[in-house]
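Encode chain A's predicted structure.
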Amino acid sequence: MSKDNFEFLDALSQIARDKGISIDVLLEALANALVAAYKRRPGSAEEAVVTIDPDSGEIKVYAQELDEDGNVIREWDDTPYDFGRIAAQTAKQVILQRIREAERDLKYEEYAGREGDIVTGIVQQSDNRYTLLDLGKVEALLPQAEHVPTEHYEHGARLKAYIVEVRKTTKGPQIVVSRTHPGLVKRLFELEVPEISSGVVEIKALAREPGHRTKIAVYSNDPNVDPVGACVGARGGRVRMVTNELRGEKVDIVPYSDDPVEFVQRALQPARVKEVRLDETSGVATVVVSDHQLSLAIGKEGQNARLAARLTGWRIDIKSESQLLAESKGYGDEEWAEGEWVENEAGEMVWQSAEGGEAVSATEWFEHEGYDEEQEQEGDLTASDYSSSSEESHAVERTDEIGSLDDDERLFDEEAQA
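Encoded structure for chain A:
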Protein backbone atom coordinates (compact mmCIF):
# COMPACT_ATOMS: atom_id res chain seq x y z
CA MET A 1 0.00 0.00 0.00
CA SER A 2 1.39 3.40 -1.00
CA LYS A 3 1.53 6.25 1.48
CA ASP A 4 -1.03 8.20 -0.55
CA ASN A 5 -3.46 5.27 -0.63
CA PHE A 6 -3.00 4.72 3.10
CA GLU A 7 -3.78 8.34 3.88
CA PHE A 8 -6.74 8.22 1.52
CA LEU A 9 -8.28 5.18 3.25
CA ASP A 10 -7.49 6.55 6.68
CA ALA A 11 -9.30 9.80 5.84
CA LEU A 12 -12.31 7.89 4.54
CA SER A 13 -12.43 5.77 7.68
CA GLN A 14 -12.28 8.83 9.90
CA ILE A 15 -15.09 10.53 8.02
CA ALA A 16 -17.19 7.36 8.18
CA ARG A 17 -16.74 7.16 11.96
CA ASP A 18 -17.48 10.84 12.57
CA LYS A 19 -20.63 10.86 10.45
CA GLY A 20 -21.88 7.41 11.34
CA ILE A 21 -21.63 6.20 7.74
CA SER A 22 -20.35 2.81 6.62
CA ILE A 23 -16.93 2.88 4.89
CA ASP A 24 -18.35 0.53 2.26
CA VAL A 25 -21.07 3.07 1.44
CA LEU A 26 -18.45 5.77 0.89
CA LEU A 27 -16.29 3.52 -1.26
CA GLU A 28 -19.29 2.54 -3.40
CA ALA A 29 -20.29 6.16 -3.90
CA LEU A 30 -16.73 7.08 -4.86
CA ALA A 31 -16.50 4.18 -7.33
CA ASN A 32 -19.72 5.26 -9.06
CA ALA A 33 -18.44 8.83 -9.36
CA LEU A 34 -15.13 7.64 -10.80
CA VAL A 35 -16.99 5.63 -13.46
CA ALA A 36 -18.69 8.85 -14.56
CA ALA A 37 -15.33 10.65 -14.57
CA TYR A 38 -13.76 7.88 -16.65
CA LYS A 39 -16.53 7.96 -19.29
CA ARG A 40 -15.93 11.68 -19.85
CA ARG A 41 -12.37 10.95 -21.03
CA PRO A 42 -11.73 10.70 -24.80
CA GLY A 43 -11.58 7.12 -26.08
CA SER A 44 -13.13 5.58 -22.99
CA ALA A 45 -15.26 2.45 -23.25
CA GLU A 46 -19.06 2.74 -23.13
CA GLU A 47 -19.25 0.33 -20.21
CA ALA A 48 -16.86 0.22 -17.28
CA VAL A 49 -16.61 -0.52 -13.59
CA VAL A 50 -14.29 0.94 -10.97
CA THR A 51 -12.97 -1.11 -8.08
CA ILE A 52 -11.37 0.24 -4.92
CA ASP A 53 -9.44 -2.22 -2.79
CA PRO A 54 -10.57 -1.59 0.81
CA ASP A 55 -7.23 -2.85 2.15
CA SER A 56 -4.70 -1.21 -0.16
CA GLY A 57 -6.77 1.66 -1.54
CA GLU A 58 -5.72 0.74 -5.08
CA ILE A 59 -8.13 2.00 -7.76
CA LYS A 60 -8.70 0.08 -11.01
CA VAL A 61 -10.90 0.79 -14.04
CA TYR A 62 -12.13 -2.24 -15.98
CA ALA A 63 -13.62 -1.55 -19.38
CA GLN A 64 -16.28 -4.00 -20.50
CA GLU A 65 -17.84 -5.24 -23.69
CA LEU A 66 -21.42 -6.48 -23.40
CA ASP A 67 -23.59 -8.64 -25.66
CA GLU A 68 -27.18 -7.88 -26.66
CA ASP A 69 -28.48 -9.33 -23.40
CA GLY A 70 -26.20 -7.16 -21.28
CA ASN A 71 -23.79 -9.95 -20.34
CA VAL A 72 -20.05 -9.20 -20.10
CA ILE A 73 -18.21 -10.97 -22.90
CA ARG A 74 -14.91 -9.20 -22.50
CA GLU A 75 -13.23 -7.16 -19.75
CA TRP A 76 -9.86 -5.46 -19.59
CA ASP A 77 -7.91 -3.09 -17.36
CA ASP A 78 -8.24 0.44 -18.77
CA THR A 79 -7.04 2.45 -15.80
CA PRO A 80 -5.68 5.84 -17.03
CA TYR A 81 -2.15 6.66 -15.91
CA ASP A 82 -3.28 9.84 -14.16
CA PHE A 83 -6.43 8.37 -12.65
CA GLY A 84 -5.10 8.88 -9.13
CA ARG A 85 -5.25 12.63 -9.58
CA ILE A 86 -8.78 12.41 -11.02
CA ALA A 87 -9.78 10.20 -8.11
CA ALA A 88 -8.45 12.70 -5.59
CA GLN A 89 -10.39 15.57 -7.21
CA THR A 90 -13.57 13.54 -7.42
CA ALA A 91 -13.33 12.01 -3.96
CA LYS A 92 -13.82 15.26 -2.02
CA GLN A 93 -16.95 16.28 -3.91
CA VAL A 94 -18.45 12.79 -3.84
CA ILE A 95 -17.73 12.23 -0.18
CA LEU A 96 -19.28 15.55 0.86
CA GLN A 97 -22.36 14.87 -1.23
CA ARG A 98 -22.69 11.35 0.09
CA ILE A 99 -22.26 12.56 3.66
CA ARG A 100 -25.12 15.02 3.20
CA GLU A 101 -27.31 12.28 1.72
CA ALA A 102 -26.42 9.86 4.48
CA GLU A 103 -27.19 12.42 7.16
CA ARG A 104 -30.57 13.10 5.56
CA ASP A 105 -31.28 9.36 5.42
CA LEU A 106 -30.32 8.94 9.08
CA LYS A 107 -32.59 11.79 10.11
CA TYR A 108 -35.44 10.37 8.09
CA GLU A 109 -34.97 6.88 9.53
CA GLU A 110 -34.96 8.35 13.04
CA TYR A 111 -38.45 9.81 12.56
CA ALA A 112 -39.91 7.46 9.94
CA GLY A 113 -42.67 5.39 11.46
CA ARG A 114 -43.10 7.79 14.38
CA GLU A 115 -46.43 9.14 13.16
CA GLY A 116 -48.67 9.37 16.20
CA ASP A 117 -45.81 10.12 18.59
CA ILE A 118 -45.13 13.30 20.57
CA VAL A 119 -42.07 15.50 20.10
CA THR A 120 -40.88 18.53 22.05
CA GLY A 121 -39.46 21.43 20.12
CA ILE A 122 -38.51 25.08 20.48
CA VAL A 123 -40.41 27.66 18.46
CA GLN A 124 -38.02 29.17 15.92
CA GLN A 125 -40.23 31.01 13.48
CA SER A 126 -43.93 31.75 13.27
CA ASP A 127 -46.04 33.53 10.67
CA ASN A 128 -49.51 33.30 9.17
CA ARG A 129 -48.59 30.16 7.20
CA TYR A 130 -46.71 27.92 9.60
CA THR A 131 -44.56 27.66 12.71
CA LEU A 132 -41.14 26.01 12.74
CA LEU A 133 -40.13 23.89 15.72
CA ASP A 134 -36.47 23.04 16.33
CA LEU A 135 -36.30 19.37 17.37
CA GLY A 136 -32.52 19.32 17.62
CA LYS A 137 -31.27 17.58 14.48
CA VAL A 138 -34.26 18.51 12.32
CA GLU A 139 -37.05 21.07 12.18
CA ALA A 140 -40.74 20.26 12.34
CA LEU A 141 -43.43 22.12 10.44
CA LEU A 142 -46.58 23.19 12.32
CA PRO A 143 -49.00 24.39 9.60
CA GLN A 144 -51.54 27.10 10.30
CA ALA A 145 -54.36 24.55 9.95
CA GLU A 146 -52.86 22.61 12.88
CA HIS A 147 -52.63 25.68 15.14
CA VAL A 148 -55.00 25.99 18.10
CA PRO A 149 -56.89 29.27 17.48
CA THR A 150 -56.55 30.36 21.11
CA GLU A 151 -52.79 29.74 21.30
CA HIS A 152 -49.95 32.13 20.47
CA TYR A 153 -46.51 30.60 19.92
CA GLU A 154 -43.73 32.86 21.12
CA HIS A 155 -40.18 32.58 19.83
CA GLY A 156 -38.04 30.37 22.05
CA ALA A 157 -41.01 28.73 23.80
CA ARG A 158 -40.93 24.97 24.36
CA LEU A 159 -43.86 23.17 22.79
CA LYS A 160 -45.10 19.60 22.58
CA ALA A 161 -46.68 18.55 19.29
CA TYR A 162 -48.17 15.43 17.71
CA ILE A 163 -46.43 13.97 14.63
CA VAL A 164 -48.96 13.75 11.81
CA GLU A 165 -46.68 12.84 8.90
CA VAL A 166 -43.00 12.27 8.05
CA ARG A 167 -42.10 13.00 4.43
CA LYS A 168 -38.84 12.16 2.66
CA THR A 169 -37.60 15.03 0.49
CA THR A 170 -34.38 15.87 -1.35
CA LYS A 171 -33.58 18.37 1.38
CA GLY A 172 -34.12 15.88 4.17
CA PRO A 173 -37.10 14.69 6.18
CA GLN A 174 -40.06 17.02 6.53
CA ILE A 175 -41.91 16.40 9.79
CA VAL A 176 -45.45 17.74 9.95
CA VAL A 177 -46.82 18.17 13.49
CA SER A 178 -50.13 19.24 15.01
CA ARG A 179 -51.43 20.90 18.16
CA THR A 180 -55.09 20.26 17.33
CA HIS A 181 -55.04 16.50 16.77
CA PRO A 182 -57.01 14.45 19.37
CA GLY A 183 -54.03 12.10 19.55
CA LEU A 184 -52.05 14.84 21.31
CA VAL A 185 -54.33 14.58 24.35
CA LYS A 186 -54.10 10.79 24.32
CA ARG A 187 -50.30 10.81 24.18
CA LEU A 188 -50.08 13.41 26.96
CA PHE A 189 -52.15 11.18 29.23
CA GLU A 190 -49.91 8.23 28.36
CA LEU A 191 -46.92 10.29 29.50
CA GLU A 192 -48.56 11.39 32.74
CA VAL A 193 -50.52 8.25 33.72
CA PRO A 194 -48.42 5.09 34.20
CA GLU A 195 -51.59 2.96 34.27
CA ILE A 196 -52.33 3.98 30.67
CA SER A 197 -48.81 3.37 29.39
CA SER A 198 -48.80 -0.06 31.06
CA GLY A 199 -52.18 -1.02 29.59
CA VAL A 200 -54.08 -1.29 32.87
CA VAL A 201 -56.23 1.71 31.92
CA GLU A 202 -57.40 2.28 28.34
CA ILE A 203 -58.67 5.40 26.61
CA LYS A 204 -61.69 3.98 24.79
CA ALA A 205 -62.93 7.16 23.13
CA LEU A 206 -61.88 10.78 22.80
CA ALA A 207 -63.56 13.90 21.43
CA ARG A 208 -61.91 17.28 21.27
CA GLU A 209 -62.57 20.90 20.39
CA PRO A 210 -59.01 22.29 20.45
CA GLY A 211 -58.41 25.14 22.83
CA HIS A 212 -61.77 24.76 24.56
CA ARG A 213 -62.69 21.31 25.84
CA THR A 214 -61.92 17.60 25.54
CA LYS A 215 -63.88 14.58 26.71
CA ILE A 216 -62.22 11.20 27.16
CA ALA A 217 -63.79 7.88 28.13
CA VAL A 218 -61.52 5.57 30.12
CA TYR A 219 -61.81 1.92 31.10
CA SER A 220 -59.88 -0.20 33.60
CA ASN A 221 -58.83 -3.78 32.93
CA ASP A 222 -58.23 -4.21 36.66
CA PRO A 223 -61.32 -4.04 38.93
CA ASN A 224 -59.12 -2.67 41.72
CA VAL A 225 -58.06 0.36 39.67
CA ASP A 226 -60.38 3.35 39.27
CA PRO A 227 -59.76 4.58 35.70
CA VAL A 228 -61.01 8.12 36.34
CA GLY A 229 -59.06 8.46 39.58
CA ALA A 230 -55.89 7.19 37.90
CA CYS A 231 -56.18 9.85 35.19
CA VAL A 232 -57.07 12.66 37.57
CA GLY A 233 -54.28 11.81 40.02
CA ALA A 234 -53.75 12.91 43.59
CA ARG A 235 -55.33 16.34 44.06
CA GLY A 236 -55.82 16.48 40.30
CA GLY A 237 -52.08 16.56 39.68
CA ARG A 238 -52.02 14.35 36.58
CA VAL A 239 -54.86 15.95 34.69
CA ARG A 240 -53.50 19.37 35.66
CA MET A 241 -50.21 18.58 33.90
CA VAL A 242 -52.16 17.75 30.74
CA THR A 243 -54.30 20.89 30.89
CA ASN A 244 -51.20 23.02 31.49
CA GLU A 245 -49.57 21.58 28.36
CA LEU A 246 -52.81 22.25 26.49
CA ARG A 247 -52.67 25.84 27.82
CA GLY A 248 -55.85 25.71 29.90
CA GLU A 249 -58.02 23.49 27.73
CA LYS A 250 -60.61 21.79 29.96
CA VAL A 251 -60.61 17.99 30.10
CA ASP A 252 -63.62 15.92 31.18
CA ILE A 253 -62.78 12.33 32.16
CA VAL A 254 -65.73 9.91 32.22
CA PRO A 255 -65.85 6.14 32.80
CA TYR A 256 -66.54 4.10 29.68
CA SER A 257 -69.47 1.67 29.57
CA ASP A 258 -70.52 -1.00 27.07
CA ASP A 259 -74.13 -0.08 27.82
CA PRO A 260 -74.96 2.77 25.39
CA VAL A 261 -77.60 4.25 27.72
CA GLU A 262 -75.15 4.46 30.60
CA PHE A 263 -72.38 5.70 28.32
CA VAL A 264 -74.53 8.55 26.97
CA GLN A 265 -75.45 9.53 30.54
CA ARG A 266 -71.81 9.64 31.57
CA ALA A 267 -70.72 11.45 28.41
CA LEU A 268 -73.05 14.37 29.20
CA GLN A 269 -71.39 15.05 32.54
CA PRO A 270 -71.33 17.39 34.39
CA ALA A 271 -75.09 17.44 33.64
CA ARG A 272 -77.25 14.91 35.47
CA VAL A 273 -79.41 12.89 33.09
CA LYS A 274 -82.78 11.47 34.13
CA GLU A 275 -83.51 9.24 31.13
CA VAL A 276 -82.02 8.14 27.80
CA ARG A 277 -84.16 6.75 24.98
CA LEU A 278 -82.28 5.12 22.11
CA ASP A 279 -83.52 4.75 18.54
CA GLU A 280 -81.10 2.33 16.94
CA THR A 281 -82.71 2.74 13.52
CA SER A 282 -81.97 6.47 13.29
CA GLY A 283 -79.01 6.45 15.67
CA VAL A 284 -80.62 9.15 17.83
CA ALA A 285 -80.39 9.19 21.61
CA THR A 286 -83.15 11.30 23.17
CA VAL A 287 -81.94 12.55 26.53
CA VAL A 288 -84.30 13.84 29.23
CA VAL A 289 -82.95 16.22 31.89
CA SER A 290 -84.43 18.42 34.59
CA ASP A 291 -85.37 21.92 33.49
CA HIS A 292 -82.52 23.51 35.47
CA GLN A 293 -80.02 21.04 33.94
CA LEU A 294 -80.91 21.76 30.30
CA SER A 295 -78.37 24.54 29.72
CA LEU A 296 -75.64 22.58 31.48
CA ALA A 297 -76.37 19.46 29.41
CA ILE A 298 -76.25 21.40 26.16
CA GLY A 299 -73.24 23.44 27.23
CA LYS A 300 -71.95 26.77 26.05
CA GLU A 301 -72.84 27.10 22.35
CA GLY A 302 -73.81 23.41 22.38
CA GLN A 303 -70.29 22.26 23.17
CA ASN A 304 -71.15 19.66 25.80
CA ALA A 305 -73.77 18.02 23.58
CA ARG A 306 -71.49 18.01 20.52
CA LEU A 307 -68.58 16.43 22.37
CA ALA A 308 -70.85 13.82 23.96
CA ALA A 309 -72.23 12.93 20.53
CA ARG A 310 -68.73 12.49 19.09
CA LEU A 311 -67.61 10.52 22.12
CA THR A 312 -70.51 8.04 22.02
CA GLY A 313 -71.25 7.93 18.30
CA TRP A 314 -74.94 8.73 18.91
CA ARG A 315 -76.82 11.78 17.66
CA ILE A 316 -78.00 13.36 20.89
CA ASP A 317 -81.28 15.27 21.23
CA ILE A 318 -81.66 16.85 24.68
CA LYS A 319 -85.08 17.72 26.07
CA SER A 320 -86.16 19.11 29.42
CA GLU A 321 -88.98 17.52 31.39
CA SER A 322 -91.25 20.50 30.62
CA GLN A 323 -90.64 20.17 26.90
CA LEU A 324 -91.37 16.46 27.03
CA LEU A 325 -94.61 17.10 28.92
CA ALA A 326 -95.71 19.75 26.43
CA GLU A 327 -95.02 17.42 23.53
CA SER A 328 -96.95 14.56 25.08
CA LYS A 329 -100.04 16.69 25.84
CA GLY A 330 -99.99 19.07 22.95
CA TYR A 331 -99.02 17.21 19.82
CA GLY A 332 -97.47 13.92 20.68
CA ASP A 333 -99.88 11.83 18.54
CA GLU A 334 -100.32 14.24 15.64
CA GLU A 335 -98.29 15.21 12.60
CA TRP A 336 -97.22 18.82 12.10
CA ALA A 337 -95.84 20.80 9.23
CA GLU A 338 -92.18 21.67 9.39
CA GLY A 339 -91.22 25.10 10.70
CA GLU A 340 -89.58 26.91 13.58
CA TRP A 341 -90.20 29.45 16.33
CA VAL A 342 -88.76 32.84 15.40
CA GLU A 343 -88.85 36.31 16.92
CA ASN A 344 -90.90 38.89 15.01
CA GLU A 345 -90.30 42.64 14.81
CA ALA A 346 -92.32 43.19 17.98
CA GLY A 347 -90.12 40.81 19.92
CA GLU A 348 -92.78 38.09 20.18
CA MET A 349 -92.12 34.43 19.48
CA VAL A 350 -94.17 33.24 16.48
CA TRP A 351 -94.36 29.94 14.59
CA GLN A 352 -93.22 30.27 10.98
CA SER A 353 -94.16 27.37 8.72
CA ALA A 354 -91.47 26.10 6.37
CA GLU A 355 -94.03 26.31 3.56
CA GLY A 356 -94.45 30.05 4.12
CA GLY A 357 -97.60 31.95 4.90
CA GLU A 358 -98.58 34.06 7.86
CA ALA A 359 -96.78 33.39 11.14
CA VAL A 360 -98.81 32.21 14.14
CA SER A 361 -98.24 33.61 17.62
CA ALA A 362 -97.77 31.34 20.60
CA THR A 363 -101.18 32.38 21.98
CA GLU A 364 -102.93 31.58 18.72
CA TRP A 365 -101.07 28.26 18.56
CA PHE A 366 -102.32 27.16 21.96
CA GLU A 367 -105.86 28.40 21.32
CA HIS A 368 -105.90 26.36 18.13
CA GLU A 369 -104.79 23.29 20.05
CA GLY A 370 -107.44 23.66 22.75
CA TYR A 371 -105.35 25.51 25.33
CA ASP A 372 -107.43 27.21 28.05
CA GLU A 373 -106.98 28.79 31.46
CA GLU A 374 -108.03 25.59 33.18
CA GLN A 375 -104.92 23.83 31.82
CA GLU A 376 -102.76 26.60 33.20
CA GLN A 377 -104.38 26.33 36.61
CA GLU A 378 -103.75 22.59 36.57
CA GLY A 379 -100.02 23.27 36.21
CA ASP A 380 -99.55 22.95 32.42
CA LEU A 381 -97.26 25.26 30.52
CA THR A 382 -98.44 28.76 29.60
CA ALA A 383 -98.23 29.98 26.04
CA SER A 384 -95.25 32.18 26.89
CA ASP A 385 -93.54 29.26 28.65
CA TYR A 386 -93.96 27.11 25.59
CA SER A 387 -92.67 29.73 23.19
CA SER A 388 -89.44 30.04 25.15
CA SER A 389 -88.95 26.32 25.75
CA SER A 390 -89.80 25.31 22.18
CA GLU A 391 -86.83 27.17 20.88
CA GLU A 392 -84.61 25.04 23.08
CA SER A 393 -86.16 21.73 21.93
CA HIS A 394 -83.71 21.32 19.08
CA ALA A 395 -80.88 20.64 21.53
CA VAL A 396 -77.93 20.10 19.23
CA GLU A 397 -79.01 22.05 16.14
CA ARG A 398 -80.10 25.27 17.94
CA THR A 399 -77.38 25.77 20.52
CA ASP A 400 -75.88 29.11 19.58
CA GLU A 401 -78.60 30.99 21.51
CA ILE A 402 -78.33 28.88 24.70
CA GLY A 403 -75.90 29.82 27.40
CA SER A 404 -73.96 27.67 29.81
CA LEU A 405 -74.07 27.33 33.57
CA ASP A 406 -70.38 28.05 33.91
CA ASP A 407 -70.55 28.12 37.71
CA ASP A 408 -72.10 24.62 37.79
CA GLU A 409 -69.44 23.36 35.42
CA ARG A 410 -66.60 24.73 37.54
CA LEU A 411 -68.18 23.32 40.70
CA PHE A 412 -68.45 19.88 39.14
CA ASP A 413 -64.86 20.02 37.88
CA GLU A 414 -63.61 20.88 41.35
CA GLU A 415 -65.69 18.11 42.93
CA ALA A 416 -64.45 15.57 40.36
CA GLN A 417 -60.80 16.50 40.88
CA ALA A 418 -61.16 16.46 44.66
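Residues 371-412, 414-418 have pLDDT under 50 and may be disordered.
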